[in-house]
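Format notes (please read before filing issues)

Several people have asked whether sequences and structure tokens are stored in separate files. They are not. Every record keeps both together, in the order shown below: the sequence lines, then the token lines. Line labels are part of the format and must not be stripped during preprocessing.
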Amino acid sequence: MSYSKLLSSLLLCGLALLSANSRADAWLIDVEGAIGPAVADHMVRGLEQAQEAGAELVILRIDTPGGLDTSMRQMIKAVLASPIPIIGYVAPSGARAASAGTYLLYATHIAAMAPGTNLGAATPVQLGSPGLPQLPDAKPKQEEGEGGSAPLPGTPMERKIVNDAVAYIQSLAQLRGRNAQWAEQAVREGASLSAVDALEMNVIDIVANSVNELLTQTHGLELELGNAVQTLDNEDLVVYHHPVDWRSEFLAVITDPNIAYVLMLVGIYGLIIEFYNPGFGVPGVVGAVCLLLALYALQVLPISYAGLGLILLGIALMTAEAFAPSFGILGLGGIVAFVVGSIMLMDTELPGYQIALPMIVAFAVFSVGVLVFALGMIMRGRRRAVVTGLDHLFGVQVPVESVTGGVAWVRLDGELWEVACEDSLAPDDTVTVNTIDDLVLQVSKDGRNT
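Then the structure lines:
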């Protein structure tokens, strides 16, 4: 085959690939696991890339127990602003759209579920410290409402959070024409529904066994996008499964509360070790990198600054204990502050965003070992007298080992030294080292100093 024919074939193949890649498809984006910064980043960037690729439709395949409110609202804002029709699909069978997943499903243009799935339990988890417990016979506080006095459980802050969540999900239900009354029950009472019941109660629009069946059922539906009405044309659409890229995977790792906690402590300890042992470099470099990664992760996580302050106070107290003569109140106070601060660090009650207690205990023990005992030994070692060089020989009493040709020799530190003395010396005489002159020890006999 000639080079011209080969070049022509390559050009034709390239044009075919370009035409295939430029075809508008349906994008499938997974929203899986606890909703947090990594899941939100993956979904939001996926919507942006689908828009840039000219996709005709986006399917959000949802399977989540819920997650952080800030990440959920970031995802919903992206859905509401999308110029592309978005289908929320709770799948596969056995999946759920609980808590934050229910809000996200309500926000999509079309809500669908696979058989054997459920949604609901959208009561917001209280942020911060829990309210004070009441006595078993205590009655809920009565507040005046439109219908007279009615019991309103919880603290004023809890009621504000719940009312805000109710208003938010009702606004989404009204926007998409779905059951707003049940949405309020899902928030106030933690109600849940199966796929079939959700379809009957106008909570969702479709029950589909697969993505292909979902595309078939939604073919020809009319949707309002902004001020225009768009008819879905799903015939022969090719589904592109948008993968989780390295950025989202990396973000998922470092925003794990346990990983962020470890990075923060490794960073702090690395810098402390570098400050007390300058010049080596490795602890300082590793500590600085880990601390910067931890700070990035913590700024997107719901942390308690009081807990962070207690951790830093505990480390400072345990470090100060290294300068004390013995283990005492500073070390004990530092351990207590460190453990309590670690428990309080995550300012949320979501199970997926709590630091494991065994890890807290392990780092508390490690901190005691590194900051109290290791640094204490270093500081006490620095305060000791110098035991290297020749100065440590001054004042040492040693017997004369031998006298050869009028020259006396003594043994110090395993070596023979020539000695000079104003008095005559004989073997086994005791001398005291006064100075060193050109590798000759100037001594005095019988401990009499010159």
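For reference, the curators noted about this record: Residues 12-23, 126-152 have pLDDT under 50 and may be disordered. The longest strand covers residues 397-404.
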